[in-house]
Amino acid sequence: MAEKKTKPTPKPRVAMREQPAIERVGNFSEVALGYTREQAMAEAARCLQCKKPACVKGCPVEINIPGFITRLAEGDVRGAYGILRETNSLPAVCGRVCPQEVQCEGACILGQMTDKASGEKLEPVAIGRLERFAADTFAAESACDELTGKPVCAMPRDGLKVACIGSGPSSLTVAGYLSALGVQVTIFEALHEPGGVLVYGIPEFRLPKATVGREIDALRAQGVEIRCNWVGGKTVAVRDLLNDGYQAVFIGVGAGLPKFLGVPGESLVGVYSANEYLTRVNLGRAYDYPAYDTPVTRGKHVAVIGGGNVAMDAARTALRLGAERVSIVYRRTREEMPARREEIHHALEEGVHLEMLCNPTAYVGDGKHRLAALRLQRMCLGAPDASGRCRPEAIPGDVFELPCDQAILAVGTGSNRVLLQDTPEVTLNKWGYIVVDEETGETSLPGVYAGGDIVTGAATVILAMGAGRRAAKAIAHKLGLQ
């Protein structure tokens, strides 16, 4: 009788190289160093090549994940990159900043299996790291090869043109999708540099500006025109674009209006919104002052209020700017923090302190209009609220002060009304975000579409790209291209 063959247990996930914490806290260079070719091929070989790949369903832009991983396992980087670009205009970006652990990797079948010998749960395939490797390696190899470095473009279709307002991930996705079909796409960006949150919000040590620039250059090479210093609602209006012959307009202006707590002392010198702080440091390159003439206050004792990725970015930035102590203040516990686990891990490695179950009630001044401390109310977790998370409740009488000369608020953002006030035909919800058809992204104004944070509120890069892809498909259908 033939012996029953058993499948070998997949090998452990291949670790990715990183700068040591003691070194990286003193520079703004990228923390994660990526895979070598051998490491990428070994990690790709872990993929089970499922007949019904749950990872694809977990991807907002519908990447053929088993397909590109198969190519990498074979050593075919160019083939892998080609598959990625079929649905994703920004693979090098997504491979770095997407929350893969709750999307494609969270759905990976391998990650739901256990090691028969140890009984320990296996780690999913490192899809994001492989995506990053494919994009970076293709770019490096193509830099020496003009022919393979140029994208394959469709023949321009006379008379078809679409405008995008804002140059963040949703607009870049729309532009990539439609330009590949031969549509002339023009992006209007309010700032002096394109990329939206990718350049003003995410620090260099997580997402290098050169990486973003490379992805945007690929879109330009595909025929996309980008006009900077055009402010939606001021120097460019939706109605004017439609009257000028654009068959569709996509609004992807994000949600960059900072929120504040409204507690006493908020006007003291030393209190920043994370939006202003990170924009100065990232887009303004304040970390490289005086080479770039954008100064920023460098606090010695910094308190960052919030528990998301933006809070982690601000805290880790403050450390790199020379802060002696940085504390993250959050009203729930570490387990409830919405930031990526990897970002929390990196922050703690670098020396960031956590002040959990604390809620700010006032900023305390030094008598000279400067911040001296943050007054905090101790909290405990009560019954779950409407979101399903336990509601923070104050512990009566338990108040203390955290000395600090700089406080950075990372408690969310709202919609910027400059463009929206100029376009009253576009319906907004009670929070001031644009209401769209969930399937197409079309607004109440025919021919005008929207996606990303201006529709959902502050979310992730990949969700904004998913919204852009849905809108691009709908626009292509309207133009008779699909």
Automatic annotation (TrEMBL):
<dbReference type="InterPro" id="IPR023753">
    <property type="entry name" value="FAD/NAD-binding_dom"/>
</dbReference>
<dbReference type="GO" id="GO:0051536">
    <property type="term" value="F:iron-sulfur cluster binding"/>
</dbReference>
<dbReference type="InterPro" id="IPR028261">
    <property type="entry name" value="DPD_II"/>
</dbReference>
<dbReference type="Pfam" id="PF14691">
    <property type="entry name" value="Fer4_20"/>
</dbReference>
<dbReference type="Pfam" id="PF07992">
    <property type="entry name" value="Pyr_redox_2"/>
</dbReference>
<dbReference type="InterPro" id="IPR009051">
    <property type="entry name" value="Helical_ferredxn"/>
</dbReference>
<dbReference type="InterPro" id="IPR006004">
    <property type="entry name" value="SudA-like"/>
</dbReference>
<dbReference type="InterPro" id="IPR036188">
    <property type="entry name" value="FAD/NAD-bd_sf"/>
</dbReference>
<keyword id="KW-0560">Oxidoreductase</keyword>
<feature type="domain" description="Dihydroprymidine dehydrogenase">
    <location>
        <begin position="25"/>
        <end position="141"/>
    </location>
</feature>
<dbReference type="GO" id="GO:0016491">
    <property type="term" value="F:oxidoreductase activity"/>
</dbReference>
<feature type="domain" description="FAD/NAD(P)-binding">
    <location>
        <begin position="161"/>
        <end position="468"/>
    </location>
</feature>
<protein>
    <submittedName>
        <fullName>Sulfide dehydrogenase (Flavoprotein) subunit SudA</fullName>
        <ecNumber>1.8.1.-</ecNumber>
    </submittedName>
</protein>
